[in-house]
Amino acid sequence: MSDDGKPGPDLRVRLVDVGVELVAREGVGALTLREIARRAGVSHGAPRRYFPTHLELLSAIARRGFTELAGRVTTTLGDGTAPAREQVGDLGLTYLRFALDNPGMYELMFRHDLLRSGHLRLRDTSLPLFRVLVDLVGRVRPAADAPVVAGALWANLHGIAQLWRWGSLQFATGTDDFAPLLRTAIDAHLGPEAGR
To answer: What is the 3-state secondary structure (H, E, C) of the chain?
Structure first.
């Protein structure tokens, strides 16, 4: 709050910070405007000054998740000189670890109502990550329709993350390591790795 008792310009950031913490602790269902405002210490109408709709606030929170995931991917891929197939594996591992370490944020990030709403600008942070995968797939399989293959691989990774989080894959496969599932998914979409 500023000296005159009105919300300061950092309230927008604080509301998003509170939402990020709330989704991490309590999941997507806890992300109401009223609860975020309460935890930020402002009136329940205050968030509407910065986020006219609930979806806009959720989108800003989800954008933080995409930014964090993008940072992890950038760190993982480093200078990009490793073979493309190896980078796909590293990216897949990073994606799965992010999903399992941040289940609430992960769920929020891929909500259809947020992603389809172009005016929320969430695509500006989500699509570049997909393009990284498309580029790598195109380098591994130059003759393939890279966006389609990347989309299928991403869907496979998303399914692994969801089913692993629920415990279904551990039960069905009798394993406590998702690395073989990741390798198999990559092989299914990119073809078997040479020498294996």
So the answer is: CCCCCCCCCCHHHHHHHHHHHHHHHHCHHHCCHHHHHHHHCCCCCHHHHCCCCHHHHHHHHHHHHHHHHHHHHHHHHCCCCCCHHHHHHHHHHHHHHHHHHCHHHHHHHCCHHHHCCHHHCCHHHHHHHHHHHHHHHHHHCCCCCHHHHHHHHHHHHHHHHHHHHHCHHHHHHCCCCCHHHHHHHHHHHHCCCCCC
What distances in angstroms separate CA 101 from CA 47, 106, 175, one per listed residue? 28, 9, 19
Model confidence at 117: pLDDT above 70: no
Structure tokens at 92: 């897949």
Cα–Cα distance for residue pair 170/187, rounded to 1 Å: 20
pLDDT confidence band for 5 (50 / 70 / 90): very low
Cβ-based neighbours of 152, under 8 Å, separated by 6 or more? 189
Paired tokens of 71: 């940072």
Amino acid at 169: L
CB-based burial label for 16 (10 Å; 0-12, 13-18, 19+): buried
Phi, psi angles (nearest 5°) of residue 121: 65, 15
Q: Which two tokens stand for residue 104?
A: 């609430």
The fraction of the chain above a pLDDT of 70, given in percent, is 91
